[in-house]
Amino acid sequence: MTGRLSNLSAIAPDVIVSATLQLETPGAGFTEITRQAADFVARAQAGDGVLFVFLRHTSASLTIQENADPDVQRDLVTALDRLAPEDVPWVHDVEGPDDMPAHVKAMLNGVSLHIPVRGGALALGTWQGLYLVEHRRRPHSREVVLQFVGSKR
């Protein structure tokens, strides 16, 4: 396999900016947060660096996925449901049959992301978006911690 590395770019981080994004989810499914993350980066007056995104919950998750065709999100929800179905005799079911499957799905996707920031913009691919994935059927209030580390514009 061959590849070509771009020129190296070095910065001395001179700022750490943090905020918490409060979201109300409608229930199971994808909630795009790309716009809120980009707004945070702009308000932080970010130059070059990295955006860390952390979800403070164990029954929802974060992912970077296609943002062009909503069928992708529907199929991903179906895939996660197949990997962690509700109709299994889970031991942990205190909050209902979707409780333990939600924890499994969150473990599979993860609760943190990091996105490069270049010239004050998220360095996402053309069809990529940031999503909070709610794994519970009921609506929930979720907190996402955003933190930029890098240079100022």
From TrEMBL:
Pfam families: YjbQ. It comes from the Bacteria. SUPFAM superfamilies: YjbQ-like (SSF111038). Belongs to the UPF0047 family. This is YjbQ family protein. The lineage of its organism: Bacteria, Pseudomonadati, Pseudomonadota, Alphaproteobacteria, Hyphomicrobiales.
